[in-house]
Amino acid sequence: MSEAPIISVRNFSVDFMISTGLIRKSPLRALKGIDLDIPRSCFFGLVGESGSGKTTFGRALLRAAPITEGTAHYNDGELEYDLTNIQPDDLREYRKRAQLIFQDPYAALSPRMTVRDIIAEPLKVMKLTSSRAETDEKVREIAKACRLNVEHLRRFPHAFSGGQRQRISIARALVSNPRFVVADEAVAALDVSIQADILNLMKRIQNETQATFLFISHDLSVIAQVCDFVAVMYLGQIVETAPADKLFFEPAHPYTQALLAAIPDLDTDAKRIAPKLQGEIPSPTNRPSGCAFHTRCPYTIDICRSEEPKMESKSDGHKLVCHRWKDLPIAAESVTEGTPTHD
């Protein structure tokens, strides 16, 4: 029997109240009816265009955004929580085990604190150490793991490059030894060469600690390099999920195929079956009827406009929501040739 996933959500929805007049407010559905399992001890990728709801999903799992409907469960093998109705005492314990790596390493660090104090802050707030000596020992351990020198701990954030600042952010997130980490566009603000260094660092730490990373990104080439599983999000819904190799070589949903087709190819003569995306993602305040993707999908028929598709299994671990996926070509050769393979 396989072990329970560390995160399991069913019919998971998040609403925000927005102003529609001087005093009137109405709900905006940012996430709608998500069913998803995140296995333990893996790098799980979440990909989609800007505005698709990726960050909201990560924040909701950390209980930094409201959960409006559905259920969300956390189970790391030692502790189990119902995140939908978690009590304050349990929430404090949960946040020792669930941490966030921010996107912008420049805005995430206080300019008035030394690196040592920045990394040590979670230990103090969560009361994980009983003395300054114990705190310093843990700070030095995680700094070494994140390839920060001891002399760095006495400096302030302005003295560091973007890559070094992101390593400081990672050290702060991991110093409490979390079991679940949300990395929200953690390398998006960095140069490509520095991105590779940070990705290798996170992957190495994940392998050593067996923590679970939810890696949020809009860059499919980055997802391909580091993730074991991938979920594709569109307009607050999961449209396809699969092991990374299956998703990149057998993309079944038209949206996934279009995202992969948008990856630049050095072979200018390569033929592409999957059409590129046209238009922009709709506003969640004016959500399309039926399939949310039908306004941009080249394969739309009447049922797509009128009826919302259900999640179906294509193969073991490969699921998607699409009325027509069995009729569509798998554009693997056209959209994934030259795409970095997962190892």
Short overview:
By secondary structure, the protein is α/β, with parallel strands linked by helices. It has two domains: 7-227, P-loop containing nucleotide triphosphate hydrolases (Rossmann fold), CATH 3.40.50.300; 234-336, no CATH class.
Write the layout of secondary structure elements.
Layout: E1 7-19, E2 25-38, E3 43-47, H1 54-61, E4 69-75, E5 80-82, H2 88-97, E6 98-101, H3 115-125, H4 132-145, H5 162-174, E7 180-184, H6 192-209, E8 212-217, H7 220-226, E9 229-234, E10 237-243, H8 244-249, H9 254-261, H10 302-306, E11 311-315, E12 318-321, H11 332-336
Parallel strand pairs: 3-8, 3-9, 6-7, 7-8
Antiparallel strand pairs: 1-2, 1-4, 4-5, 9-10, 10-12, 11-12
Helix pairs in contact: 3-4, 3-5, 4-5, 5-6
Descriptive key words:
343 residues; alpha/beta; Rossmann fold; 2 domains; 8-stranded mixed sheet; 4-stranded antiparallel sheet; 11 helices; 12 strands; globular; disordered C terminus
Looking at CATH, the homologous superfamily of the largest domain is P-loop containing nucleotide triphosphate hydrolases
Number of domains: 2
Write down the secondary-structure element order: EEEHEEHEHHHEHEHEEHHHEEH
CATH architectural category of the largest domain: 3-Layer(aba) Sandwich
N→C terminal distance: 26 Å
CATH fold field value of the largest domain: Rossmann fold
Low-confidence stretches: 332-343
Descriptive overview:
It is a single chain. The protein is 31% helix and 23% strand. The longest helix is centred in the middle third of the chain and has 18 residues. The two termini are 26 Å apart. It folds into two domains: 221 residues, Rossmann fold; 103 residues, no CATH class. The radius of gyration is 21 Å and the shape is globular. With 343 residues, it is of the alpha/beta class. The chain is built from eleven helices and twelve strands.
